[in-house]
Amino acid sequence: MDENEPEEEKQRSSNWLVYGMVFGMLAGVVIGSLTDQLALWMVFGISIGIAVSAGFSKSGK
User: Fold this and answer.
1) How far apart are CA 56 and CA 41, in angstroms?
2) pTM of the model
3) In angstroms, what CA-CA distances link 49 with 1, 4, 17, 44, 61?
4) How far is Cα 50 from Cα 46, in angstroms, rounded to an integer?
5) For residue 7, is it within any domain?
6) Would the pLDDT of 9 be above 70?
7) CA separation (Å) from 46 to 25, 30, 36?
8) Are 53 and 20 in contact (CB under 8 A)?
9) Would you call 7 exposed, middle or buried from its count of C-beta atoms within 10 A (0-12, 13-18, 19+)?
10) Which parts pass through the membrane (predicted)?
11) How far is CA 32 from CA 1, 3, 38, 43, in A?
């Protein structure tokens, strides 16, 4: 099973990034709809979601 550990670790970090992108985009759509600046907040939401999820994927060991 040792040969599968790096692949499993890549999968876990990839999952964190996907979750971050999804939740970030969701938050960006909600805030952008409320402020009438959808494109701006979608980009901010995705960026912040990726940054937060990258932090969680590294500290979640």
Assistant:
1) 22
2) 0.71
3) 32, 28, 8, 8, 19
4) 6
5) no
6) no
7) 5, 12, 17
8) yes
9) exposed
10) 16-32, 38-56
11) 46, 45, 4, 10
Residue 44 lies in a domain: yes
Residue 46: which domain range? 17-59
Residue 43 lies in a domain: yes
CA dist 6 and 41 (Å) reads 35
Closest by CA to 49, choosing from 37, 38, 61, 29, is 29
| Token reading at 3 | 């040969």
C-alpha gyration radius of the chain: 15
Q: What one-letter code names the amino acid at 13?
A: S
The count of structural domains within the chain is 1
Cα separation values, 8 from 14, 15, 17, 28, 45, Å = 10, 11, 14, 30, 27
